[in-house]
């Protein structure tokens, strides 16, 4: 069942934040795809009815887009989590959210207990014995200071002393931990603040200096460095569009034409499909219909946790339109699974027609064309080139994978097809896209190596099935700082040859060997 | 049922195949994690899951390869059939089209997997009985005629999911046992994989008794 609209503020984030926000609003089980977290919608948002119409959404697009760019990737992500973490007993919606993953110290447990029962812990009147202890942890730890019940032999002096000492140690330890945590929190706050400032100042530079002089500045060292830091969300879509370019010269008018063609097809499809058996239809027609079916099927399976592309969600029709128009524009490629993720990310950052233009041009790049046409021999070339740099950068892990005959297709197919938007948290995927727009296909493979490097130590401990499982379902707590420092450490140089040269020589080497292999693109 | 992850006697590689959207990923998540997700994400390429079960007193680790159903991906995914000792060919009982193409899936499978692979036909989504398009008798007959195991399941309400996987794993197990006896009688060792580890990663694992049919 579709989810209503007024929840975008909580669920529009990376999977991590989404989990947290979900816990806050509905701590127990949420029905799958059912009711959305009941957070009030910000007043600026469009009512669901209006957003459902495609025409309506074009208007709503800008306010949504603004909303995203302001809140989507920056502040919200970071603000939600600490709020939950740092206020342990804080009651939200009458229930204390479960926090099973957080390390609990005894004090937090105590506070939680109080919050649940409503009882307050009343410290016993301080006895003379304990007067000098100023830090009193609210837990059973202090019990060891008590005398034994009358029916048991009393503590000896040494024992009492030892207990006292142990207790003091525990208290000191707890205090140290608290101070350390407070420092850590402060540091995180400082870093976040700095980050936001950086984004704000970067935005000014992008808007005032770079974008007006795009062609002249895009390749300068300064711009490239700034680019690596991640694009400010408010200029992200614009920069992506400019960087991807429009070789195909698609205009918004052309998009409208293909869109109306797609709509005609849907109409005739829905009229005939009920009684018509697809078996008998000619292959090309069957394929086209299968494409339409597939798009419908896949849209609900694209970022399901965001609840915005699903039926009834604000971007459902938009995603449908972009993908449908594309299958009409490029019947030779058609719809292939994985595309819905790419289109979705573009829709989150661009207006409808611009999203389509970027989508079509992006898929026209050689690497994307090879993958989406499932040109097997070309894909193998890409994997082979990847392995050249894999061996160069991570020789130990490379051998480890080799020993299990674990080939890169196992994990790269998903990563490359969806440009990491399915495998990485969304905000991180967008940062990968940023640099992908700057550096081209080579960066996709560099990112893959960065991921392998980031997890190298763990992967070296794993066998085939665990590696395969791990890489096809990456940990959700992956952070951009760590990942990007690992990507930065990957050298895309192989004995003075760069990616493009390595790839070109692989293409030349095997020109004869693969003629019988390559599946022809569908006509 | 569950025993410690790493303590197993056998590893069986099983592939899940069938059209896109028939519920392969949910069948698997129901079996391995007892989870169901209405909007699970599209599978691209292949995903993996494992679960260890007891067959008799042998500990069997199922290593399940969940493949993408999209036709265009078959060029890639068919490579993953190699070394598999079992396959679940899944269709959706509410979509006749997904049943009509079972033939093609089987051909694809037999083209790339060992001939002795144990295959089970699975009609999924029995919870949507009111929308049924494929009669159970029809599918059952097809399975019988083609030497396939057959079961109808619902990953959503859990019906028969456990049974489906257990049945096929048991069947594989007995087949392996039989072959073991045969090979020890004839004094030939044919339990090693025909192709080296590359095609059957299951064999490359740490301690398992190697299995290839």
Automatic annotation (TrEMBL), chain A:
Region of interest (Disordered), ranges: 1-53
Cross-referenced PROSITE patterns: TBC_RABGAP
Biased composition (Basic and acidic residues): 20-31
Entry GO CC: cytoplasmic vesicle; vacuole
Residue stretches in coiled coil: 157-192
Feature: compositional bias, Polar residues: 10-19
Keywords, sorted A to Z: Coiled coil
Gene: Tbc1d12
GO biological process: vesicle-mediated transport
Protein name: TBC12 protein
InterPro entries membership: Rab-GAP-TBC_dom (IPR000195), Rab-GAP_TBC_sf (IPR035969), Rab_GAP_TBC_domain (IPR050302)
Domain Rab-GAP TBC: 230-440
SUPFAM superfamilies per the UniProt record, alphabetical: Ypt/Rab-GAP domain of gyp1p (SSF47923)
GO molecular function, one term: GTPase activator activity
Automatic annotation (TrEMBL), chain B:
Membrane topology field: Lipid-anchor
Localization (cell): Cell projection, Pseudopodium membrane; Endomembrane system
Gene3D superfamilies: P-loop containing nucleotide triphosphate hydrolases
InterPro entries for the chain: P-loop_NTPase, Rab_GTPases_membrane_traffic, Small_GTP-bd, Small_GTPase
Presence of the UniProt keyword Lipoprotein in the record: yes
A molecular-function term among this protein's GO annotations: GTP binding
Region entry Disordered, spans: 184-213
Annotated Basic and acidic residues bias: 204-213
Purpose: The small GTPases Rab are key regulators of intracellular membrane trafficking, from the formation of transport vesicles to their fusion with membranes. Rabs cycle between an inactive GDP-bound form and an active GTP-bound form that is able to recruit to membranes different set of downstream effectors directly responsible for vesicle formation, movement, tethering and fusion. RAB25 regulates epithelial cell differentiation, proliferation and survival, thereby playing key roles in tumorigenesis.
Subunit structure: Interacts (GTP-bound form) with RAB11FIP1, RAB11FIP2, RAB11FIP3 and RAB11FIP4. Interacts (via the hypervariable C-terminal region) with ITGB1 (via the cytoplasmic region); the interaction is GTP-dependent. Interacts with ITGAV. Associates with the integrin alpha-V/beta-1 heterodimer. Interacts with VPS33B.
Family as reported in the entry's similarity comment: Belongs to the small GTPase superfamily. Rab family.
Protein name per UniProt: Ras-related protein Rab-25
Organism of derivation: Acrocephalus arundinaceus
Name of the encoding gene: Rab25
């Amino acid at each position: 069942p579709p989810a209503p609209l007024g929840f975008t503020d909580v669920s529009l984030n990376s999977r991590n934040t989404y989990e947290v926000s979900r816990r806050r609003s509905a701590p127990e089980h949420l029905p799958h795809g059912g009711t959305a977290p009941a957070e009030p919608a910000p007043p600026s948002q469009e009512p669901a009815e209006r957003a459902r119409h495609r025409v309506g959404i074009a208007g709503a697009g800008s306010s949504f887009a603004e909303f995203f760019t302001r809140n989507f990737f920056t502040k919200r992500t970071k603000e939600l989590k600490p709020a939950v973490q740092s206020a342990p007993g804080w009651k939200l919606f009458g229930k204390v959210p479960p926090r099973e993953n957080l390390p609990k110290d005894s004090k937090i447990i105590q506070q939680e207990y109080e919050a649940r029962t409503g009882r307050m812990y009343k410290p016993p009147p301080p006895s003379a014995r304990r007067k000098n202890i100023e830090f009193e942890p609210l837990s059973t730890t202090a019990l060891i200071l008590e005398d034994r019940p009358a029916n048991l032999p009393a503590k000896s002096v040494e024992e009492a002393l030892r207990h006292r000492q142990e207790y003091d140690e525990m208290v000191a330890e707890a205090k140290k931990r608290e101070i350390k945590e407070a420092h850590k929190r402060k540091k995180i706050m400082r870093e976040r603040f700095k980050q936001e400032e950086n984004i704000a100042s970067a935005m000014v530079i992008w808007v005032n200096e770079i974008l007006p002089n795009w062609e002249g500045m895009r390749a300068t060292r300064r711009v490239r460095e700034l680019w690596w830091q991640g694009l400010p969300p408010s200029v992200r879509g614009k920069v992506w569009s400019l960087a991807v370019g429009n070789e195909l010269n698609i205009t918004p008018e052309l998009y409208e034409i293909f869109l109306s063609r797609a709509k005609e097809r849907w109409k005739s499809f829905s009229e005939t499909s009920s009684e018509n058996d697809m078996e008998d239809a000619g292959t090309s027609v069957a394929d086209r219909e299968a494409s339409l079916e597939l798009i419908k099927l896949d849209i609900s399976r694209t970022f399901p946790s965001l609840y915005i592309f699903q039926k009834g969600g604000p971007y459902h029709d938009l995603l449908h339109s972009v993908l449908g128009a594309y299958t009409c524009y490029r019947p030779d490629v058609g719809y292939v699974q994985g595309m819905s993720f790419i289109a979705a990310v573009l829709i989150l950052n661009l207006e409808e027609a611009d999203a389509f233009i970027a989508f079509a041009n992006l898929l026209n790049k050689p690497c994307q064309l090879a993958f989406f046409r499932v040109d097997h021999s070309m894909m193998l070339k890409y994997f082979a080139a990847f392995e050249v740099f894999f061996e160069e950068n991570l020789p130990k892990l490379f051998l480890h994978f080799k020993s299990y005959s674990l080939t890169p297709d196992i994990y790269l197919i998903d990563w490359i097809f969806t440009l990491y938007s399915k495998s990485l948290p969304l905000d991180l995927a967008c940062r990968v896209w940023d640099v992908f727009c700057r550096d081209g296909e080579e960066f996709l493979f560099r990112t893959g190596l960065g991921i392998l490097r980031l997890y190298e130590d763990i992967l070296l401990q794993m066998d085939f099935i665990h590696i395969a499982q791990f890489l096809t379902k990456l940990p959700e707590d992956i952070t951009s700082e760590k990942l990007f420092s690992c990507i930065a450490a990957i050298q895309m140089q192989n004995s003075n040859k760069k990616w493009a040269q390595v790839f070109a020589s692989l293409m030349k080497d095997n020109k004869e060997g693969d003629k019988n292999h390559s599946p022809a693109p569908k006509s | 049922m569950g025993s410690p992850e790493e303590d197993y006697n056998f590893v069986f590689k099983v592939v899940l195949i069938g059209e896109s959207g028939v519920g392969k990923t949910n069948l698997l998540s129901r079996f391995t994690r007892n989870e169901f997700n209405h909007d699970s994400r599209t599978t691209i390429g292949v995903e993996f899951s494992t679960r260890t079960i007891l067959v008799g007193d042998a500990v069997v680790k199922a290593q399940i390869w969940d493949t993408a159903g999209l036709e265009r991906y078959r060029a890639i995914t068919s490579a993953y059939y190699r070394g598999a000792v079992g396959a679940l060919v899944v269709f959706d009982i509410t979509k006749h089209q997904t049943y009509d193409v079972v033939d093609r899936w089987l051909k694809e499978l037999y083209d790339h997997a060992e001939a002795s692979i144990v295959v089970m036909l699975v009609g999924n989504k029995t919870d949507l009985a009111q929308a049924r398009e494929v009669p159970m008798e029809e599918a059952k007959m097809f399975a019988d005629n083609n030497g396939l195991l057959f079961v109808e399941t619902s990953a959503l309400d859990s019906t028969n999911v456990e049974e489906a996987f257990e049945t096929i794993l048991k069947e594989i197990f007995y087949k392996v046992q039989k072959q073991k006896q045969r090979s020890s009688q004839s004094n030939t060792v044919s339990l090693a994989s025909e192709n080296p580890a590359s095609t059957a990663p299951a064999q490359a694992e740490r301690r398992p008794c190697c299995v290839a049919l």
